[in-house]
């Protein structure tokens, strides 16, 4: 046993409290205890002999209970959630002018946004979280009189919302998506991209019907705009990566979000209708460089059909569709983050169908494509822990659980 493991549990509580930048009073308030109670625990004057209390403390400190019990060390390289306090602090500076800040040019801001998106789409969530405070400062603390740069501002908030949703922070994901909507102003495409993030955050928060309403209204607005005849001469019309193509791609993605929300609240017919609508849109959307980072297309529609089938309890259909999806040409062209997240959803389909080996295979595949999808997301770690407790555990799962720190 290492020296760290031999530390009294109270000392470990104190170490993690300091690491999370909490005072004894702050920890006490979140636990509904007194400061004296926390002080006695940390000094060892009061024993922690109830696992339910240890779980409550671990939840506040954002660690596994086993870390406090000394059963395994924290993950190498730290927890991606360690950086969330910096993100919260940056969000709290909203609208504040900081004279000491070096103004960021539009070109530099776009470069930072592009780098953050690239990191996100490669599943490098720790890098994204580290970059967010300075990126949010750049879009939130502008010199007086400088106009708002709508597109990079919306994209910065979308990146923030996307990674916060990944890390289970529904309220912060909702907040940043809302700020993206405000920054979008009257631009339908930017407002639509912000609504994609809003729908994801609302779904995580359990507000499925709100997510359904918001995404469908935004999708209707965009698809109607995309259908309007162009007044631009044929030779001067936008290329497939132009405005109209973006309207189709963002509108189609909103329809997929709406279908998932509809399925989650038991509206199966509406979910199916939205998927069919999205399939029609996908036949028109040909975005070469995908400037709005939607990854929308026929493969994305089929992936959504798999997830809707899972929500409806049609597990055999979900598994069959999944096996076809991952054989399609467009599958490997999707970003690593997109594929990794989908494989985690597919793992749940196999698990619900009683195929533990299939579920394990999907999780191991997801870890190979985008490790943070398995190792950093709380919901996926829970799924991995459930599979690791199987007897016997699916091939590769026990090793992965050990790497993630879920077993001794």
UniProtKB/TrEMBL annotation:
<protein>
    <submittedName>
        <fullName>Transcriptional regulator</fullName>
    </submittedName>
</protein>
<dbReference type="InterPro" id="IPR010982">
    <property type="entry name" value="Lambda_DNA-bd_dom_sf"/>
</dbReference>
<feature type="domain" description="HTH cro/C1-type">
    <location>
        <begin position="13"/>
        <end position="68"/>
    </location>
</feature>
<dbReference type="InterPro" id="IPR001387">
    <property type="entry name" value="Cro/C1-type_HTH"/>
</dbReference>
<dbReference type="Pfam" id="PF13560">
    <property type="entry name" value="HTH_31"/>
</dbReference>
């Amino acid at each position: 046993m290492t020296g760290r493991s031999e530390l009294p549990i109270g000392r470990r509580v104190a170490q993690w409290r300091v690491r999370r930048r909490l005072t004894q009073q702050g920890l006490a308030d979140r636990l509904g205890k007194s400061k004296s109670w926390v002080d006695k625990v940390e000094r060892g004057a009061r024993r922690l002999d109830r696992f339910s209390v240890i779980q409550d403390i671990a939840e506040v400190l954002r660690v596994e209970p086993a870390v406090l019990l000394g059963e395994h060390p924290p993950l190498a390289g730290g927890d991606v959630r360690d950086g969330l306090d910096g993100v919260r602090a940056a969000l709290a500076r909203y609208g504040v002018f900081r004279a000491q800040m070096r103004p960021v040019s539009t070109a530099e801001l776009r470069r930072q946004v592009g780098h953050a998106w690239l990191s996100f789409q490669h599943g490098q969530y720790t890098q994204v979280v580290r970059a967010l405070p300075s990126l949010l400062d750049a879009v939130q603390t502008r010199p007086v009189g400088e106009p708002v740069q709508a597109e990079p501002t919306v994209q910065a908030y979308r990146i923030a919302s996307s990674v916060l949703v990944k890390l289970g922070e529904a309220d912060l994901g909702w907040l940043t998506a809302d700020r993206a909507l405000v920054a979008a102003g009257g631009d339908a495409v930017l407002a639509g991209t912000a609504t994609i993030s809003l729908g994801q955050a609302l779904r995580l928060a359990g507000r499925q019907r709100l997510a359904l309403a918001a995404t469908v209204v935004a999708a209707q607005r965009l698809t109607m705009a995309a259908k309007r005849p162009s007044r631009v001469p044929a030779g001067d019309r936008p290329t497939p990566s132009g405005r109209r193509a973006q309207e189709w791609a963002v509108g189609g993605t909103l329809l997929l979000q709406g279908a998932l929300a509809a399925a989650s609240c038991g509206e199966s017919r509406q979910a199916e209708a939205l998927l069919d609508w999205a399939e029609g849109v996908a036949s028109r959307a040909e975005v070469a460089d995908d400037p709005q980072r939607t990854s929308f297309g026929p493969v994305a529609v089929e992936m959504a059909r798999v997830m809707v089938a899972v929500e409806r309890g049609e597990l055999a259909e979900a598994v069959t569709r999944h096996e076809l999806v991952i054989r399609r040409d467009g599958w490997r062209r999707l970003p690593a983050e997109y594929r990794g997240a989908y494989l985690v959803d597919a793992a749940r389909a196999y698990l619900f169908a009683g195929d533990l080996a299939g579920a394990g295979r999907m999780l191991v595949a997801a870890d190979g494509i985008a490790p943070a999808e398995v190792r950093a997301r709380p919901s996926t770690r829970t799924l991995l822990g459930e599979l690791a407790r199987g007897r016997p555990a699916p091939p590769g799962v026990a090793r992965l659980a050990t790497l993630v720190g879920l077993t001794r």
